[in-house]
Amino acid sequence: MEFDIPQNVLELKEKVRLFINENIIPHESSYDYTTGRMPEDLVREIRQKVKSANLWTPHLPVSEGGLGLDMVGTAIIFSELGRSFIAPYLFNCDAPDEGNMHLLHVAANERQKEIFYKPLIDGKIRSGFAMTEPPPGAGADPSSLKTNAVKQGNKFILNGHKWYCTGANGAKFLIVMAKVNDSFRKTSIFLVPTDSPGYKMVREIGVMGSHGPGGHCELTFTDVEVPEENMLGRIGEGFSLSQVRLGPARLTHCMRWLGLARRSMEIAMNYAKNREVFGSKLAEHQGIQWMFSESALEIESGYMLTLKAAHLLRSEKDARHAISLAKWQVSETLNKCVDRAIQICGSLGYSQDLKLELFYRDGRAARIADGPSEVHKMVVFRGLFSGKHEF
Ligand SMILES: Cc1cc2nc3c(=O)[nH]c(=O)nc-3n(C[C@H](O)[C@H](O)[C@H](O)COP(=O)(O)OP(=O)(O)OC[C@H]3O[C@@H](n4cnc5c(N)ncnc54)[C@H](O)[C@@H]3O)c2cc1C
pTM for the full model? Predict the structure, then answer.
């Protein structure tokens, strides 16, 4: 594993840090907590600035308007822009669109790229990824999948009930996981435009934290006709393709969460340097110093795990074990760091004057979404006990 960051990535990292500090963080106050949205004209204005600075869709190849970074470079840049919770959307690399772009880049044919991928990478439309279903359907265990597509001539008739589909309200299309002809083995992925008759966005589910535009939605599909040319890949490739998306997408979550964990500690550091208690600065009390040191250890460990998993993906090696370790560790680290930062900042940390309370609520989802920590521990255990991985 290479520990030196290439000069071009290092320069880009500095550029992103400056850009975030100057052009993004000052606009965080325009973010509406209740709707998860920012004023549209402001979004357009900032996105234009991002494009002018050549920072748009940083994860994509240069030929598609991105920065041509490999997975390790992407990890470094995403961790930097993750310092602001509004940055990923403004850079057009937020979940779920970023993961959906990756999947379409790898698996879509030319026609599908033209209709779904190109407008997505241009930031003209948004998308959703619909896998999770209400009980007894698919959740942590995808083998309970109930949504079903029945082949009828040159189309499929899709029926199902999904929820927690991030960004679905206002999305132009959804990437939907469904069985085919009730066969789990034939699980496939369908590209479903949201103006398809029979599709319904039932509601944006009220959640603990904030969310980007489009919320986390409950959806129903009632006899939705999906032309066969809207199938991604072939019949039965649903789970292998979903791994193409979910592996890197879990890792890009880690990258953004590391940024947020670092930002939380920066906010706490600023407070601890200035606030005096019991005759000395907060930062001079050992109990507080250890909170910073523990956070540094956890953030650095999570960063190393994330970079290792990114390195394996870049080398096209099996990264599942490493991704599970990283996703489990970083999601827990984010929660611990934000919690410590709030404690250090006292009542101000608990207030809405700082952003820590928002990070606290948002961070809680990290331990559940894209596989709860327990599922990642299960994957790690299986890797060890099958002899495929060592301690
Ligand atoms: C903010 C947010 C955004 C999301 N966005 C999307 C999205 O865009 N698209 C999408 O398809 N889904 C999305 N999800 C759903 C998410 O991926 C699921 O919540 C997750 O996979 C867990 O499924 P579940 O909620 O049904 O939990 P369940 O399957 O009901 O599991 C409940 C709990 O059981 C425990 N558990 C599960 N398995 C094990 C095990 N093997 N051992 C021990 N304990 C276990 C875990 O603690 C888990 O939290 C989102 C969720 C959230 C919170």
Answer: 0.95
